[in-house]
Amino acid sequence: MSAVAQNGVQGRGKKTKSRQSISKNPNRSNTRKPTLSALFLITVEHAVKRMPHKRCFSNPQKYKDARKVVSTHLGWDEGTLIFANKLSVALEKRRAKVVLVESRWSRLIIDYNRTSARLTRYGLALDAKTQAKVLSDYKNYYDDIDRIIDKESARRAVFHISLHTFVPVLRGKVRRADVGILYNPKVRNEREYAMALKYHAIKNENLLRKESAFNKGYKFYLNEPYRGWTDALTNKTSKKYSKRRAYFPVCIEVNQKVVKDAELKKLISQTLLQAAMALSGK
Prior knowledge:
With about 280 residues, the protein is α/β, with parallel strands linked by helices.
């Protein structure tokens, strides 16, 4: 199951406290008007390195092999969920509406960023009952996202950020990007959102340099370190909701060497808000 939390709205995943219920003054939070009427949908496809218990594996060696690599980039996107939570809080402090949806299983078992419900070789080593559970959780993840997009984009702009992190060096090659904005240039809404994000990111970075000791010089690139038109969650939803002018999907990849930077969180949250306001007209 996916875990969904949105200002008091619960999904079918594990129960989590809404942000209002843990705030110091929930009544005040309830009455404040949002900065814009749009919704930010943040999804984390590689959120965890969680695996089923070893007794669920019909092949014990597969479990041992998986345990050796589950903590690497093969098993999850390290730092993504923490960054997503901090980003959500930063957006909500600016009175934006946010829904965060996170995956339940390691990508070693099933890849939530692939649009066909196929178990990996490790997932296929699970017993039949656990396989069915994993596939059901995957389906619930996509169903939750579809439900949110279908409902919300009919009445307001929805800005969907599929959030990921990547390792600084892969197979001996240094990745030059600090932040990658992945999109399909042939899709109007994706293209407009990606261009707006990069424009405001550069603009905000220049302002931060003038206003403080900020001197990081983050490098933003379009469609790096991956291409934005390959098989992925946002490509599926983009096609499905292509007639919804109010749906803007994009994938943001953050280099793991900078994902813990507070300055980057501030920069990206401000950029997301400004791009959304520019595209939604509010």
